[in-house]
Amino acid sequence: MWKWLHPYAKPEKTYKLCSTLLPWFAVTSLLCLILGSVWGLAFAPSDYQQGDSFRIIYIHVPAAALSMGVYLSMAIAAFIGLVWQLKLSDMAAAAMAPIGAVFTFIALLTGAVWGKPMWGAWWVWDARLTSELILLFLYLGVIALYSAFDDQKTAARAAGILAIVGVINLPIIHYSVEWWNTLHQGATITKFDKPSIAPEMLWPLLINMLGFGTFFTTVTLIRFRNEILQREGHRPWVRDLVRKNG
């Protein structure tokens, strides 16, 4: 059933696949981000309580969602690398870690900007905010471990273990508003049975979330290709590629 995946265990084959997919994700990301951002920031109606300050949702929510989604993807890649000893999985996890850290930082920064007019403070030790901050520290720890060892296998093993252990923080982030009495608002776009956001506000948000997701994929493909070239630099196909493009 999974035999069609076997050829992509070869770095050369995977590099070519990334090169093929890259322009498609890049164009999709650009179109979605332009459409979603312009629609949400300029044409969506103002919120009846928050006014125009709610528009930061079109940056904050996608970044926050991706901060958790990227971490889960990174942990899965690290798990595959640890269990099945696939070096490409380790490369993928290493490629995703800095991107996820940036999304987490954006989520925290935009959350602080949004929280100031709503709560009267840039930061409160709210359960959602605190667990999101811990997520940023987990990302930084994984990145540090990838750079802490000269041996790439040892680095991947240490970083992978931390990434897998850190998954326990994801349900805490997601359910924190339900488990504890927090200032952070509850679910909005996931309540399909009774949505908490008007359709004319929801659609640009969904488009922007797709844009953020495809942007993440685009940057990951670029970083993943670079990881392959860096670690496989001694291979003949890499030398031929460099010679051809040089």
**Overall number of strands:** 0
- Summarize model confidence as the mean pLDDT: 90
Q: Which sequence of SSEs, written as H and E, runs from N to C?
A: HHHHHHHH
Q: Report the end-to-end length measured between terminal Cα atoms.
A: 40 Å
Largest beta-sheet characterization:
none
How many H/I helical runs? 8
Task: Report the portion of residues in β strands.
Answer: under 5%
Brief overview:
By secondary structure, the chain is mainly alpha-helical. The protein contains eight helices and no strands.
Q: How does the SSE layout of this entry go?
A:
Blueprint: H1 11-43, H2 57-84, H3 87-119, H4 127-148, H5 152-165, H6 169-179, H7 199-231, H8 236-245
Overview of the structural elements:
By secondary structure, this protein is mostly helical. 75% of the residues lie in helices and 0% in strands. The chain has helices at residues 11-43, 57-84, 87-119, 127-148, 152-165, 169-179, 199-231, 236-245. Helix 2 (57-84) packs antiparallel against helix 3 (87-119).
Structural descriptors:
246 residues, mainly alpha, 0% strand
